UniProtKB/TrEMBL annotation:
This is cAMP-binding domain of CRP or a regulatory subunit of cAMP-dependent protein kinases. It comes from Chryseobacterium profundimaris. Residues 29-114 form the Cyclic nucleotide-binding domain. SUPFAM superfamilies: cAMP-binding domain-like. Pfam families: cNMP_binding. It comes from the Bacteria.
Amino acid sequence: MQQIRDYFEQKVKMSDKDWLLFSSKLIRQEFPKNNVLLKTGNPENYLSFVEEGIIRFFIPKEENDLTFAFVFSNSFVSGYDSFLTQKQSTYTIQTLTKTVLWRITYEDLQLIYEQTEIGNTIGRKAGEELFLKKSKREISLLNETAEERYLNLFTEQPHLIKNIPLKYIASYIGITPQALSRIRKRIY
């Protein structure tokens, strides 16, 4: 839990009173590898902070799922569009490794917004992080080659990427597993 406070205090100072209320609403949950956190068709009920683990976002397809995001430790994770609207998600969120999350429900976050001085800042910072990741991903898809997207992913999380199956990495960068094999042969 201290990891979350440290994360926020890099950006804004929190009073002990605000932290106590916020932290009292956090739920620590552990999930095994390949656990579905949010299933397509269900609303997102949580904004979560990843203490440990790797998570993927994907659109389920009959033959090959379309992976469009990975989330690593020390980051926020949420089906944020569904969380904000409280409507059904159009994608699935799944753990790729054993994962530990600190979660807050939609209702409890609304309470934090109302009852603390720092609540809106907390929500804004989490939302901004999620938005910036999404924007970076979209720009990457428009401006970079598949090889550049692979190298960027590898550069960002070199020690963790080995835990992601190659078929998910290939889907994430928008190519077939065979094309990824050719890229990897050229690089290594």
